[in-house]
């Protein structure tokens, strides 16, 4: 099936090897590395102090004064984003704002001026706001694979017709805490790293890179010059270890093969590979195994090099930096070298040692691997001319399993009983005492967030009645959604480096990356299909559902587990229902929202797969819609999903704040006659897990005719009590339910569910 061609029309980069494209490419082709000693006195506690640093003046010279107040992460992203838009010729004109999106890869949460972590999606919000991008807005956090992952997801957004242009890339700064973590793992080289030859460790780096993606037909219509085609991409999970790659190369080779299949190409079509090439023994050995598995006898004839030998490991930006280098390699017919390569190294593979190599290049594979076992491969080719194509088919998908782990119950049976009885426990932490959902050797070392997510995923799997052979698990997808990841691990790691940065809590550090929990789920359930992690606050679950649907539509998976999990802090045993105020969503004078901890999973299947195995679905997913921005306007835009449809039930995002009024007004206007409710009084505000809970409760209402009741509501912000769910038993069948999600000030989401 030939799908709509997606091309790159603009590139932007700032990193240790260059402040822009021209300088970056010049230094790559003349073997001028950017790794230098760190002069900052704070880093003097470490014996390994080489890194890829971006001079402040490179950033400041490219930004207008109005951007001076933003943090370093946002500034790096703005520099690269503006470069890409300018090269694409979209400074003036181009797609409408609502058709122009941004998908940003990021590994680290950025501290604010007083050291508090900002929401992961904050950087993407800044770029979108400054550049007027009101289309799809996604923060993907698959650690060191995030930048390449973002490019693949951007391609999907164009294929689904949700966007006419997408900025896709990654950003991360050089942070002291992250440096301490890698030093604690003894993963840092004492000098400039030498990937593939003297694999004694990596150097960290910083920077940002963006590729501007458009459909080929629209790019040509506006007179743009395609630089390369994003022909395919592949995702996979190692399901092996929290930090170490699978030494067999199975996960990495699976990602390459999926990417080539997506592109309709074979290993024989590949001319150059941009490797992950960190310089650590485990990574470099695994990559050599991947090359031999994928290319067989031809492995030694496919040049492979590491851009990290120039810029260090830029974490969430790495995949985007290397994708930019790959596009330039295609454009100029030159393979960048791996510098610092020891000429005495004996190897049967071609790592392009020390000197750039002019050569014909029509197809490049760019690979990235990450903590948590996430793998991504991009296939980039020289652009071809216009050709006939088909639209991505919208295959019917259904929700077949629900797995809530909340303070009111664990498993859909317990939660359904609590909903029917009107029980509420906002802020009560879930209890898994005495229950083990993974092998004990793994379970006892896991943080609470991973335990909740694994429990939720297993319960959803069991509820769906799935019994798949082990081989079939290799193609089951997993999308993890979280707003902030593990508060327990982040707090423990930060405390440890405050005491002694040379002795950090390395177990906590391995769980600080936000995709670690998704990796733990894959490892426990044995899932090795396409895998990603979405971090858009309370809207994360509905965006994750979008990703799952796109996997099914593209034929990359027939079954996908979506699991969302967030926590306020390490669980406290002192919860007292009598002392905890119960918020009243949509009510005047409500108590302040109560923060909670929860994990909620649901299983998405293609309708054909469900029917073939005799599954019993809860609901059909009829559509989704997301809108970025602040205030009431994005609420109304997300509700445009209804397009005249009249849902019988709306599960909203109300938490008891005055901002509930924007949602109420939009719902009463767009869905007159629908009953409105919320899950905040049931479990508290659990960020991403609340959005997933709304989707789960919508599916439950469609099949079982019950919904959480707003029992404390007496004076609504708008409308009368007849517009709200005041008792759990619904009077009639719910043919359609609308579940809303929200990261206020960032993204609003809507999911329409229908009866099967």
From TrEMBL:
Keyword line: Transferase
Annotated InterPro entries: Beta-ketoacyl_synthase, Ketoacyl_synth_C, Ketoacyl_synth_N, PKS_Beta-ketoAc_synthase_dom, Thiolase-like
Pfam families (alphabetical): ketoacyl-synt (PF00109), Ketoacyl-synt_C (PF02801)
Domain Ketosynthase family 3 (KS3): 3-382
SUPFAM superfamilies, per the entry: Thiolase-like (SSF53901)
Family indicated by similarity: Belongs to the thiolase-like superfamily. Beta-ketoacyl-ACP synthases family.
PANTHER family with a match to the protein in the record: 3-OXOACYL-[ACYL-CARRIER-PROTEIN] SYNTHASE, MITOCHONDRIAL, POLYKETIDE SYNTHASE-RELATED
Protein name: Beta-ketoacyl synthase N-terminal-like domain-containing protein
């Amino acid at each position: 099936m030939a799908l709509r061609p997606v091309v790159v029309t603009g590139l932007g980069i700032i990193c240790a090897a260059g402040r822009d494209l021209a300088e970056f490419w010049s230094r790559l082709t003349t073997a001028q590395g950017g790794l230098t000693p760190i002069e900052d006195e704070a880093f003097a506690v470490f014996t390994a102090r080489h890194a890829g640093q971006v001079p402040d003046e490179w950033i400041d010279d490219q930004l207008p004064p109005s951007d001076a107040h933003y943090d370093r992460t946002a500034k790096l992203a703005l520099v690269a984003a503006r470069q890409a838009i300018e090269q694409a010729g979209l400074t003036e004109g181009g797609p409408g704002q609502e058709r122009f999106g941004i998908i940003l890869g990021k590994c680290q949460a950025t501290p604010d001026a007083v050291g508090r972590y900002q929401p992961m999606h904050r950087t993407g919000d800044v770029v979108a706001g400054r550049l007027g991008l009101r289309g799809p807005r996604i923060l993907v956090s698959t650690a060191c694979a995030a930048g390449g992952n973002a490019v693949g997801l951007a391609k999907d957004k164009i294929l689904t017709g949700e966007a006419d242009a997408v900025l896709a890339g990654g950003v991360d700064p050089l942070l002291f805490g992250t440096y301490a973590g890698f030093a604690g793992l003894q993963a840092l080289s004492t000098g400039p790293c030498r990937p593939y030859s003297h694999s004694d460790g990596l150097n960290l780096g910083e920077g940002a890179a963006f590729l501007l993606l458009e459909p080929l037909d629209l790019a040509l219509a506006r007179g743009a010059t395609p630089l390369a085609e994003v022909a395919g991409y592949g995702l996979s999970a190692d399901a092996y270890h929290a930090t170490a790659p699978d030494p067999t190369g199975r996960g990495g080779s699976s990602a390459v093969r999926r990417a080539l299949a997506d592109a309709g190409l074979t290993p024989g079509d590949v001319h150059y590979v941009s490797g992950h090439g960190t310089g650590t023994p485990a990574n470099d050995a695994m990559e050599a195994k991947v090359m031999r598995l994928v290319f067989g006898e031809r492995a030694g004839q496919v040049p492979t090099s590491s851009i990290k030998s120039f810029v260090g490991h830029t974490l969430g930006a790495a995949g985007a930096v290397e994708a930019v280098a790959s596009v330039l390699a295609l454009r100029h017919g030159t393979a960048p070298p791996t510098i610092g390569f020891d000429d005495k190294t004996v190897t049967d593979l071609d790592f392009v040692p020390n000197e750039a190599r002019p050569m014909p290049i029509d197809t490049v594979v760019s690979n990235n691997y990450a903590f948590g076992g996430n793998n991504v491969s991009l296939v980039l080719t020289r652009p071809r001319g216009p050709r006939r194509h088909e639209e991505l088919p919208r295959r019917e998908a259904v929700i077949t399993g629900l797995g809530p782990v909340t303070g009111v119950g664990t498993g859909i049976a317990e939660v359904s009983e609590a909903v029917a009885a009107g029980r509420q426990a906002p802020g009560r932490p879930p209890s898994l005492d005495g229950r083990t959902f993974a092998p004990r050797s793994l379970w006892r070392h896991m943080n609470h967030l991973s335990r909740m997510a694994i429990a939720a995923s297993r319960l959803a799997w069991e509820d769906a009645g799935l019994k798949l052979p082990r081989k079939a698990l290799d193609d089951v997808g997993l999308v993890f959604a979280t707003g902030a990841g593990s508060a327990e691990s982040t707090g423990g790691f930060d405390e440890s480096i405050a005491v002694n940065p040379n002795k950090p809590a390395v177990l906590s550090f391995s769980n600080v990356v936000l995709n670690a929990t998704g990796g733990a789920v894959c490892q426990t359930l044995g899932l090795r299909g396409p895998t990603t992690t979405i971090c858009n606050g309370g809207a994360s679950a509905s965006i994750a559902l979008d990703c799952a649907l796109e996997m099914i539509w593209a034929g990359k998976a027939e079954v996908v587990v979506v699991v969302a999990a967030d926590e306020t802090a390490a669980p406290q045993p002192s919860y007292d229902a009598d002392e905890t105020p119960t918020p009243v969503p949509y009510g005047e004078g409500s108590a302040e929202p109560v923060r909670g901890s929860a994990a909620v999973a649901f299983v998405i299947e293609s309708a054909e797969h469900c029917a073939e195995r005799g599954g019993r679905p809860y609901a059909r997913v009829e559509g989704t819609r997301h809108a970025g921005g602040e205030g009431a306007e994005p609420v109304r835009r997300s509700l445009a999903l209804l397009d005249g449809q009249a849902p019988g039930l709306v599960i909203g995002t109300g938490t008891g704040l005055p901002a509930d009024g924007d949602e109420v007004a939009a719902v009463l206007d767009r869905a007159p006659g629908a009953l409105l409710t919320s899950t905040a009084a049931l479990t508290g505000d659990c960020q991403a897990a609340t959005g997933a809970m709304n989707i789960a409760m919508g599916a439950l209402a469609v099949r079982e005719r019950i919904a959480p009741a707003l029992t404390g509501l007496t004076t609504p912000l708008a409308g009368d009590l007849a517009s709200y769910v005041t008792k759990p038993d619904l009077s009639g069948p719910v043919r359609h339910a609308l579940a809303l999600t929200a990261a206020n000030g960032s993204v609003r989401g809507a999911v329409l569910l229908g009866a099967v």
